[in-house]
Amino acid sequence: MQSEVKSLNEECGIFGVWGTPDAARLTYIGLFALQHRGQEGAGITVNHDGELRTKRGFGLLTDVFDSPNAVANLDGDAAIGHVRYSTAGSNLLENIQPLPFNFSDTQFALAHNGNLTNAISIRKQLEDRGAIYHSSSDTENLMHLIRLSQAPDLDGQVKEALNIIKGGFAYLIITKDRLYAALDPNGFRPLVVGQLPNGAYVVCSETCALDAVGAKFKFDVQPGQLIKIDDTGITIDQYTDDTQLSICSMEFIYFARPDSDIYGVNVHSARKRMGAMLAKEQPADADIVTGVPNSSLSAAMGYAEAAGLPYEMGLVKNQYSARTFIEPTQELREQGVNMKLSAVKGVVKGKRVVLVDDSIVRGTTSRRIVKLLKDAGAASVHLRIASPPLRYPCFYGIDIQHASELIAANHSIEEMRQIFDADSLGFLSVDSLIKAVNLKTNAPNKGLCVAYFDGKYPTPLYDYQKEYDRDQAQLHAAKMR
Ligand SMILES: O=P(O)(O)OC[C@H]1O[C@H](OP(=O)(O)OP(=O)(O)O)[C@H](O)[C@@H]1O
Ligand SMILES: NC(=O)CC[C@H](N)C(=O)O
Ligand SMILES: [Mg+2]
């Protein structure tokens, strides 16, 4: 299988719709627009006259639903779907979502984007009391907690369960007669509600999926909200008021699609502003500016515009490099970058190039792209990164859980410059990142989580705290040597 190097593992994408005849087909179209958020597995659960049916499998949406009949067979007027990149529990069929649950009296299915920080301890407690888990995914915990709740009705049970889990979560829950959508108290992950021309409501990770199905944007789900959609319409409730927006800044930097809007901010425009601010903070003596397809193109355009330099296509990406999964070894990762990117000699030969990428994780891409441009005859390569150095892991849904994997956690900027063989290297500051996104909120960091850059996590780390402390101590000891 050909691989694309995904240095930052993406997260998951979720989509749900209630009250329209072709629910599974719409969910397929919506998930297709969210495919960039997860390529390990995909699935759809449909509600057919109150009965839930699930189809899920490994790979891309087009691998799982590989014929027109595969979607047509899922007949029903409500559905939820998921594209997965695992953060907890490995790439096993039982972990691919939606997770279906059949009880003697009812059925549920869950789809989740994010990562729970107390999943291990909840599971331990419940298993000690006799619970039997179906999967090794963190997502499943919510189902057990809903069933164990003593609240008098399902709304109350769901609210009680949501108050026990911690970390990052945008959840969709489908039952025989309703669809719930819930967002964690920090709103780490984006989640939006839209409406189809026939009145049916849609809930999904990004607005690009609303556009894909022809739904009109209604609102961004807010931290701590529980939305219920059923045949009577939509109800907006809070399961907790103890909330503070800190949406993942990597959504704006890299994850989300440029045509999506998050809390009213267009992702492409935010990236352009990051590039423009980078040009002011980290100018370079150069002839042209080029981006690294795909995710840094917006930032490169912003850099070029602000620096008054021509924006050029110095690198091209092979369109056929399939998005599958991150390769496990460094050798395979490097091979992947070689297959994916190549330099346009006629453009870069003899030129002083500003090379803009959106982020550096392990440094595999940077090492390779500087060499590609130099081999193609670039006179000099000034590497500019439209985000701050990634030095701390994330526990809310991005799969970088150890600082040892992050090149910026282990090396100074000058050391990295030497490793990449760049003529100069500069990063965006955290302040400029926050200004570039410019969310309209009074929350700290203007509503952004920037913990990967400054190590200040907006919540306790629960089950991850010990491991995090150990990692940091090891890193510190290695630096002292
Ligand atoms: O330092 P590294 O470990 O190489 O990771 C950083 C690179 O990974 C991401 O791109 P990615 O290849 O995931 O995909 P893209 O085509 O969406 O930019 C990011 O945009 C950087 O280019
Ligand atoms: N990337 C995600 O959002 C993953 C969701 C969930 N934690 C899983 O591993 O399946
Ligand atoms: Mg990239």
UniProtKB/TrEMBL annotation:
Cofactor binding annotation: Binds 1 Mg(2+) ion per subunit.
GO biological process: 'de novo' IMP biosynthetic process; purine nucleobase biosynthetic process
Cofactor(s) demanded: Mg(2+)
Pathway: Purine metabolism; IMP biosynthesis via de novo pathway; N(1)-(5-phospho-D-ribosyl)glycinamide from 5-phospho-alpha-D-ribose 1-diphosphate: step 1/2
Family: In the C-terminal section; belongs to the purine/pyrimidine phosphoribosyltransferase family.
Name listed for the protein in its UniProt record: Amidophosphoribosyltransferase
UniProt-annotated catalytic positions: 12 (nucleophile)
Domain annotation Glutamine amidotransferase type-2: ranges: 12-232
Reaction(s) the record says it catalyses: 5-phospho-beta-D-ribosylamine + L-glutamate + diphosphate = 5-phospho-alpha-D-ribose 1-diphosphate + L-glutamine + H2O
Gene Ontology molecular function: any one: amidophosphoribosyltransferase activity
Native source organism of the sequence: Lentilactobacillus farraginis DSM 18382 = JCM 14108
Gene for this chain: purF
Function summary: Catalyzes the formation of phosphoribosylamine from phosphoribosylpyrophosphate (PRPP) and glutamine.
Keyword Ion transport listed: no
Keyword list, A-Z: Glutamine amidotransferase, Glycosyltransferase, Magnesium, Metal-binding, Purine biosynthesis, Transferase
Keyword Iron listed: no
Top-rank taxon, per record: Bacteria
Cited Pfam families: GATase_6, Pribosyltran
The enzyme's E.C. designation: 2.4.2.14
